[in-house]
Amino acid sequence: MKIHENLLNRLATDYGFLDIPGISFRILRFLFHETLWNLCYPHPVRQHQRKKRATIVDVAAKAAVSLGTASRVMNNRRDVDPELRRRVTEAARTLSYVRAERGRRPSHETCPIISFVLSNREFLHPMHARMLQGAEQYCEEHGYFVVFKRLDYTAETPVLELKLPALLREHGIADCLILAGTNYPNLIEATEAAGVPYVLYGNNLVGTAPHRGVDQARSDDRTGAVEAVRYLVRLGHKRICFIGDISQPWFSSRHQAYLAVIAEAGLEPIAQVVGLAPDSFQNGFTSTEAILRRGLRPTAIFAASDHIALGVWEQLRRSGLRVPEDCSLIGFDDIPDSRLTNPPLTTVHNPFLELGRELARLAIEKTRTPCAAIPEVLLPTEFMMRGTTWPCLEACQVG
């Protein structure tokens, strides 16, 4: 049936179709036929209609709370009474409520997505690569996708100016964030303000966590450092040196463990705790030079990381000191290079792969109960006794 153009334009005006920018006559004709079909064949004869999705209004009504309270609960705000939170969460679960936020169209047919956000760090660093590998492994095993995104920001950036990565902000593709790398409290505040569920790699947070003991995974660095320094004490070493920039909290915690063991053994601490170079290897190299120039002659060095330890080793070699005969050396992290040296580096194994898997597990749990605070996971480290430690020759000669 031929549609007269004047009649079509009149109908388009009545239905408001002409208000749509860039609409063509062909599209107008299609919309007219759709409208005519709906008028002639009401909804009862139309099949395969989707069941109406529950909205936040439905959740609020079922939980008998205000719309504002329901919204705060579903956006993971913490300033909600526990009983009200329980009612809203239960109502959402009963109604199979799924949030449609930040332009994302939810669908039970799409695979849930975890976003691994690496802040202020290089992706090529072995520890972060292993963590991402662990997270990806776990998510694949449980039917989740992982999206990787880098983010650079500073601790001084105001929360209102700190934006989540554009990929997340504009498309809303993350069901939960894994905040890895080096992070500051302002990113956590911005993430909470955006209503995005998250879990945190706790070892590398610079500053105080807003919610300590929950929604994070970390390794037990302190116990690993204590075990390493106590081993040097048992080998008879009296002049044990620590090298690491304690402005970085993960090195500071290892330094505190070192101090505790030194005090326990009645020894005097020797340390270079101010960074002398931005690169870890170079910092180990330069810090060892500074120690030797001060006339200090440690018989053992506990380096705050393997990269620092490799720099220490190179400086000792250039200074004519042998490892381990003249100076024992222990690192921390157990990066792949630590096993390739000759002799292999004694170190503390950090379970980065397992940390990635645990962060993914917590993130998946968070997608299912976004309002619940999940207790933190603390993974043990392991002392790796290899070839760079030896009984103190001075102690043996005195004995």
Characterization of the model:
- This protein has about 400 residues and is an alpha/beta fold.
- The protein has four domains: about 5-45, no CATH class; about 55-95, no CATH class; about 115-215 and about 355-375, Response regulator (Rossmann fold, 3-Layer(aba) Sandwich), CATH 3.40.50; about 220-350 and about 385-399, Rossmann fold (3-Layer(aba) Sandwich).
- It is about 40% helix and about 15% strand.
- It is built from 14 helices and twelve strands.
- Strands 2-1-3-4-5-11 form a six-stranded parallel beta sheet, with helices on both faces. Strands 7-6-8-9 form a four-stranded parallel beta sheet, sandwiched between helices. A two-stranded antiparallel ribbon has the order 10-12.
- Strand 6 (about 240-245), helix 10 (about 250-265) and strand 7 form a beta-alpha-beta unit.
**What fraction of residues sit in β-strands?**
5-15%
Can you count the beta strands?
12
What are the segments in which pLDDT stays under 50 over at least 5 consecutive residues?
19-23, 43-50, 101-110
Question: What CATH architecture of the largest domain do you see?
Answer: 3-Layer(aba) Sandwich
What keywords describe this structure?
4 domains, six-stranded parallel beta sheet, 399 residues, alpha/beta, four-stranded parallel beta sheet, Rossmann fold
In short:
The protein is α/β, with parallel strands linked by helices and 399 residues long.
List the helices and strands and how they pair.
Elements: H1 5-15, H2 25-40, H3 56-63, H4 67-74, H5 82-94, E1 113-119, H6 126-141, E2 145-151, H7 166-171, E3 176-181, H8 185-193, E4 198-201, E5 216-219, H9 221-234, E6 240-243, H10 249-264, E7 270-272, H11 280-293, E8 300-303, H12 306-318, E9 328-330, E10 347-349, H13 352-368, E11 377-379, E12 382-384, H14 393-398
Parallel strand pairs: 1-2, 1-3, 3-4, 4-5, 5-11, 6-7, 6-8, 8-9
Antiparallel strand pairs: 10-12
Helix pairs in contact: 3-4, 3-5, 4-5, 6-13, 9-10, 11-12
